[in-house]
Write a structure and sequence with these properties.
- This protein is α+β, with helices and mostly antiparallel strands.
- It is built from 1 helix and 3 strands; from the N terminus they run αβββ.
- 12% of the residues are buried.
Length: 105
């Protein structure tokens, strides 16, 4: 099988995109009091489902107890501002149950 490009979709190589994802990652770490040892991932993805915004930003992170948390912001990562992040007291509602969670998102 021939290689036809990036394995994980559209890979952004421009410095502005990397700066935006790093900025959102830093805000997630600060908002939820995560240390440098905690994994935090920020990605911009295209949604193919009807009714979804065309581009959204997803943040996923793991707490000290290895619980995975996730939230979406319905805009490109470059447009995300710190006030778009959920407030810290919503942390229990951000638990990512994977396939066991809701079908809505």
């Amino acid at each position: 099988m021939a290689y036809n490009g990036p394995m994980f979709g559209n890979v952004h190589r421009d410095p502005e995109h990397h700066e935006a994802t790093a900025r959102v990652e830093a805000w997630v770490r600060a908002r939820f009091s995560l240390g440098t040892a905690s994994a935090v991932m920020v990605a911009e993805v295209e949604c193919q489902m009807p009714g979804c915004p065309p581009i959204e930003t997803i943040a996923a992170f793991w707490g000290e107890d290895e619980t995975r948390y996730r939230f979406k912001i319905f805009k490109p990562v470059a447009d995300v501002v710190e006030d778009d992040l959920p407030v810290s007291w919503l942390l229990p509602s951000l638990v990512d149950y994977g396939e066991l969670g809701c079908d809505c998102c």
